[in-house]
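Before a colleague's protein record goes any further, I have to sign it off. Would you go through it and say whether the fold makes sense for this chain? Take the sequence as given and treat only the tokens as open to question. The record follows directly below this note.
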Amino acid sequence: MIKVYAGAAVAVLAGLLGGSAYWVYSNQNGDAFTQCRGGQVGGGSIGGPFTLVNPAGETVTDTDVITKPSLVYFGYTFCPDVCPLDNARNAEAVDILEELGLDVTPIFISIDPARDTPEVMGEFASIMHPKMIGLTGSEEQVKAASQAYKTYYKKQDATDKYYLVDHSTFTYLMLPGVGFVDFFKRETTPDEMAQTVACFLGAS
């Protein structure tokens, strides 16, 4: 009897595994970007509608801003090292892509609206790259945008204006009409990022 149960369990497990394999295979075949993902999981619920403020003080939405393939990064201008380095990396990738004839927009969204006014974001973005769009907003607007992209940030306790903000550091590749397709970690180089973005644009 034990052998019968064991045999039935094996059969059920094989069926489940087979079904899972078929589901994965079917979904990959329906994904035009499979060859670009490098094994990472793409798509899903990352990204979505947001309402923020541009350097001109104008209220804009995601559809106003993401009109071209875009590299979206969340951080803040008072960040001592991580944000400038990551934004510089993204800007360099954009330049590499431009040499390939591909037009990509770097977008920097502040998670520190108390200090990052529209003017501050505009100045920072213009220093980083002429194409970069800097966005800020109210506490509520910034929180909503962060939640849409599943990012994390938390202001550290401080007694003066020089406080730090802990935050996640992913860069998200967004395509108009498609949405989120992939993300990049801090260790991704400009060349690697450009190569991956070029693959997605070639497949779209």
